[in-house]
């Protein structure tokens, strides 16, 4: 399986970030902008790091609430604050984190590569959420998110596009499907996927110069089984496929996997 990207420490970031694996799904259940909030608590299996073949099991916590009258949402690796008060359109600032990669990697060659600190990326998003409000059957939503590292870790730009469809199969059973794609620039590719000649000597991996481009394309399936109007169980399975130099890097092609799998299950509660 595969790796994923992570200010406080990896454990807290995983709690706050990966825990929200289903924030978008739960958010889509509301047919219009709402002042109500929710919390999701559960466990997830994710790649050890981006491009990794080994998984790690982590706890997760997700939430959405009203902040200064607007919606604040943690969704996967991003936190987004919607400043547009409109029933359909959404836009505002966003924050993302990319987890560090150190010498504790399960792959011995990858553990010999230079350590990479945690990166914090700031940016903005714009998107929409179109509910089927007549019967509250679900919603079609999407966004484009651009962000840049401001911590000096990779100094790169990333651009993500996401489209999601969420619907009710029954009163207590809802399903969703999402597709997404991410572009990363040369700086990001060089930091996380290149192997310099010196690093090649230290790790035994072949040297590799990585360039930017389409980083990955993902597919996500999720469901919510409701116990009541306030509580239920959230389930998610997702896979991201790496492309171009991101897949051809020996960090992935030799020691990792170009298919990144993610699994999550959690209890959600509305308030």
Describe this structure in words.
The chain is α+β, with helices and mostly antiparallel strands and 271 residues long. The chain has seven helices and twelve strands. The chain has helices spanning 10-16, 23-28, 108-111, 186-193, 197-203, 244-248, 250-253; strands at 38-47, 55-67, 70-75, 78-81, 89-98, 119-131, 138-149, 157-170, 173-184, 213-226, 231-242, 259-270. A hairpin with a 2-residue loop joins strand 3 and strand 4 (78-81). The two termini are 35 Å apart.
Task: Summarize, please.
This protein has 7 helices and 12 strands.
**Class by SSE composition:** alpha+beta
Tell me the Rg in angstroms.
19 Å
Proportion of beta-strand residues = over 45%
* Coarse morphology: globular
Features:
271 residues; alpha+beta; 7 helices; 15% helix
Question: How are the elements arranged and paired?
Answer:
Elements: H1 10-16, H2 23-28, E1 38-47, E2 55-67, E3 70-75, E4 78-81, E5 89-98, H3 108-111, E6 119-131, E7 138-149, E8 157-170, E9 173-184, H4 186-193, H5 197-203, E10 213-226, E11 231-242, H6 244-248, H7 250-253, E12 259-270
Antiparallel strand pairs: 1-2, 1-12, 2-3, 3-4, 4-5, 5-6, 6-7, 7-8, 8-9, 9-10, 10-11, 11-12
């Amino acid at each position: 399986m595969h790796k994923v990207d992570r200010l406080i420490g990896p454990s807290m970031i995983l709690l706050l970030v990966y825990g929200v694996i289903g924030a978008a799904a739960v958010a889509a259940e509301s047919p219009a902008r709402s002042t109500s909030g929710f919390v999701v608590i559960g466990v997830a299996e994710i790649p050890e790091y981006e491009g990794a073949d080994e998984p790690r099991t982590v706890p997760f916590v997700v939430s959405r609430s009203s902040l200064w009258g607007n919606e604040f949402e943690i969704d996967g690796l991003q936190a987004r604050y919607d400043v547009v008060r409109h029933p359909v359109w959404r836009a505002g600032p966003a924050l993302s984190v990319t987890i560090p990669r150190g010498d504790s990697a399960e792959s011995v060659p990858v553990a010999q590569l230079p350590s990479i600190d945690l990166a914090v990326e700031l940016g903005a998003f714009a998107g929409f959420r179109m509910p089927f409000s007549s019967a509250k059957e679900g919603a079609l939503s999407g966004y484009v998110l651009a962000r840049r590292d401001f911590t000096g870790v990779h100094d790169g730009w990333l651009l993500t596009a996401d489209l999601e469809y969420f619907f009710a199969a029954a009163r207590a059973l809802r399903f969703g499907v999402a597709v997404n794609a991410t572009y990363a620039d040369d700086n990001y590719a060089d930091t996380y996927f290149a192997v310099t000649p010196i690093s090649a000597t230290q790790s035994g991996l072949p040297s590799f110069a990585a360039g930017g481009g389409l980083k990955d394309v993902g597919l996500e399936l999720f469901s919510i089984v409701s116990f009541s109007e306030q509580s239920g169980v959230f389930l998610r399975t997702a896979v991201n496929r790496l492309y171009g130099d991101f897949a051809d890097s020996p960090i992935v092609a030799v020691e990792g996997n170009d298919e990144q799998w993610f699994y999550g299950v959690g209890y959600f509660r509305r308030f």
